[in-house]
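Appendix B. Chain record.
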Amino acid sequence: MSTGSSKHYDVVVLGAEIGALAAAALLARRSWRVLVLGHGYRKSTYAYDGITLSRRPFSFLSASSPVWGRVLVELAQSQTFRRRLISLDPMLQVLGDRLRLDLPPDTELFAREIDREFPAVRRVVDDLYTELARTNALADAAFERDAVWPPGGFWERRETTRILSTLPYLQGPQDFLAEFPREHAFRDIVATPARFACDLADGAPPFATARLHGAWTRGVSGLAGGEDELVEFLLERIRAHGGATRLDERASALVHKGGKVRGVHIDGDESPIGVSFVVSSMPTAPLLDLARFVPSRTRGAQIEAVERRFVMSIVVRPEGVPSPLAIESFLLPETGPVVHLQKAPGPTPGTVLLVAEALVRDGAPLDQMREAMLETVFEFLPFLERHVLMCDSPHDGRPLWDMRGANALMIGVGKPAWELRVREIDRALLRPTGGSLEIEPMIPRFRIAEGGLHGLAGEPLRTPLGNAFVTGRSTLPALGQEGELLAAWGVARIITRTDRRKEKMLREMWSKVELS
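Structure tokens predicted for this chain:
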């Protein structure tokens, strides 16, 4: 840690989510002097006794997005990054009451799955995916345009509104699942993966649901190293273009004068560093709290975190995992929490890591979430119970459960149908290997009052504090990961246009790209 600094950076980025890092990489590529502070960022994995555990699942649903494609083209990494991707087959799997549906990338195999599970609605399903393909083609064309999402000023709104006019399912209450009976199981097959990919708590608008389900079903790609590999890829690009990355440090305060951000005080430094712009993956309110800045009026939509993502790691022996279980699956019980289950192939020798994610409303008790989620998992994977080695969540403050020994402490005696003999491990023992003693915050999902862009947008990119921007989940929550990338592109464009020399250089660079 430094003891003080008089340096100046053009842009300081707070956080290491995909939107913030993409904006940082683009700006570094455009010759802006960039510093990235982790600001509380934690790697997606930690460990206990040599066994890998996870803080959060990671599904790279934006790998096929035209926005991500534009980022890679500008970074000159399209071919290099494509070699890192691993195609998932099946793309996802849905397990429900007397239901197991795989969604493979092969259209003939997919047709057989529909014939096996839903022969009565085969034509309706065919029509649905024809319509989804049309909708996503229009969305690709729209998001490929160089625009600001969500827009701010008059010209930005005019430009983005013109693009919006090309998109379906934005005007009025439209239901592209109208041909299915109201309680038909295929509605859940479409809506559930989209719900977990979305950052809106009360349901995505129809266009967003179509877009998110399309992201799951038109070819899902993964990375061998998951989220950590993507983060390191973007950090390496930032450093390659002269940027600085300090993920273990955080800002303790923002300095402002005349209504604009002027500096960032890094925790532990004696004096702040000068900045021209700040870009954050946090929502606007905590960013303004850092600056102790009270705006004279509130801009844009009001957001409220009313739901969060509870994540639990289940480490099991490989022989306990059914071979047909997909990398990405969704478990739909009749009662109990719906679970997004992600299978990590062999993070630790002799084990399989299952990462379970459930959506919980704010205020819901968390002291029984592990038991409830395990009930759901064991309902659909009944032979897994005897092969569980370890279980933990960073979100409930409870000890890690080590099931490898024979200690006679019973969990949930008299309540769950299953009974596990576990040894409780104090969380202090997880700290040396990346765990934490304190309860870690869950990723929020937002309710938006009077959101813009027909329910797609939340907070504006520009905050009330001049030259401070947000690119996180609160900006375009209906579009999930792709929304963060759209916000990142917009912020990078806004900042670039403040320097005509750099903007001209960018135009020349893209002309060369297009000619090549």
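Further analysis of this model is presented in Appendix C.
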